[in-house]
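Worked example (supplementary).
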Amino acid sequence: MSLSPDEVRHVARLARLSLTDDEVEALAPQLSEILGYADRVGEVAAEDVEPTTHPFALTDVDRLDERRPSLERAELLAGAPQVEQNRFAVPRIVSEEG
Amino acid sequence: MSEGLLPAGWELVVGLEVHVELQTTTKMWCGCSTDFGDEPNTNVCPVCAGLPGALPVPNRQAVEDATLLGLSLNGQVAPRCRFHRKNYFYPDLAKNYQISQYDVPLIHDGHLDVEVAVGTDDGTGDRYETRRIRIERLHMEEDTGKSLHVGETGRLHGADRSLIDYNRCGIPLLEVVSRPDIHDPATAQAYLRELQSIVRATGVSDARMEEGSIRCDANVSVRRTGDELGTRTEIKNLNSVRSLGRAVSYEAQRQVAVLEDGGTIRMETRHWDESTGVTEILRVKESVTDYRYFPDPDLVEILSPAERVEAIRTRVPELPAAARARLDAAGVPREAAVTVVAGGSLPVYDEAVAAGADPAGVANWLTGDVAGQLTAAEVTLEESGLTGAHLAELLALIDDGTLSNKLGKQVLTAMVERRGTDGPARIADDLGLKQVSDEGELRGIVEDVVAGNPDTVADIRGGNQKAIGALVGQVMKATKGQADPRKTNELLRELISG
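After joint prediction of all chains, the assembly is encoded as:
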């Protein structure tokens, strides 16, 4: 499994990371190596083994529809870089260009 | 049908994605309250704020409600289903991913039959046609927070910052995805209305578009008749059934104009502007792979064994189509039946009919005077305290002549004002409202009116039958509106012709 520099740029954009060309050149082989490592699982996967996403044999872990206390608002907002009208203030969401 | 919407040779293709907020007490993954309208950021905990290390736990009630709606839409329940992370950056979802379902949704392959009014060939009136819209899937996910855009315009475009309230973030949301089986705006509207009625009948949500507890996005494309499906755009910000119809019509015409001009349609998300009546590009749609869906390792599979599904199936209520058919069989006119069923007054209707009232009469009052009174008093039917038993009693008082129709309406006003604490007989008594139909009493009054208006009487005798209305008015005035109009008319005619 090998990632091209363009694929690295695309994934970086999705993750909102800005990479220099040098970083892209350096990361492409590293990421390819990591993917290759993960691919090794495919070598041992057999038809009779159910695919799973975690190691626990658990299902239906749920809860009743009962209230539990929320955070105090002051405590919640304490971590926000900017607060306005008791809300989290963030830069505008969509640019004029769309 | 919508003849004339598109030039000959073009076909409209629409699929709808409807989001329903479930009315559970707590959120989908945590015990925070779902109450609408609370102070901003007061119903937020580490789970719905997306703080590191917080673990989501599904709300059992939400899963059961979703199953109930799925069964009410003729869907199949997946014996096992799971949750995925849909990854994207948007500040109304603090985790930077939405927990949703991807490859195995809770419900698949349902359908909804809608009745659409179609003109008759001879143009004499409406005929109804039933159309089956297939439902691809219903999947569970979570709602996002609410953004308040501040800046010069207060709107998304031109705002310089957004303020986020996470109270709504994490409220259980059900996405109902239709197949692209809709080919005209009227059917799209009928589908949304019918789905809204079904949601209300199941009680899993109040499905109010204006409060956002039901929301609709439309996937719209056009094609030359017989061609493969065209590229679609997704239309957002549809705030009413009417907006849906207008937006679909606009977008279809826009796409045909672009294509006929030799242009191409891009896969994009567009924003409907209700005031200008156009759709504008919001963003180029990310492709599905860009969302990098993967199974959420914090959550395990949900099982729906047959016995649990069957237990929920017993709770599927009478659905709107069946209720309309029942009212139709009882002699209720179609328009009234549609309004009673969709407007949520069916329980009151049923109670009144059970108490012996005439079905058509009850439906007529509910959709006419009762609806008018509720609007005037700015209350819902529930808030008004009006019961079916009281309504039946009111109709009986009118039926036996104790009250005229007009007095009945006055009594109804007081019934709503008193929020159902008193019945109509008690109110009529309190207000001294009672129709004067006693022959002797009324005859005296009518005689006075005839004697006092010789010119009008002569006019009537000369053949102007309409003038009798003026005399009826005089009798009503003399009795403070309480004279029995039918008897008044009879007596007037008798005295004038005699």
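Two points are worth noting when inspecting this output. The mean pLDDT of chain B is 90. Residues 116 and 129 of chain B are 5 Å apart (CA to CA).
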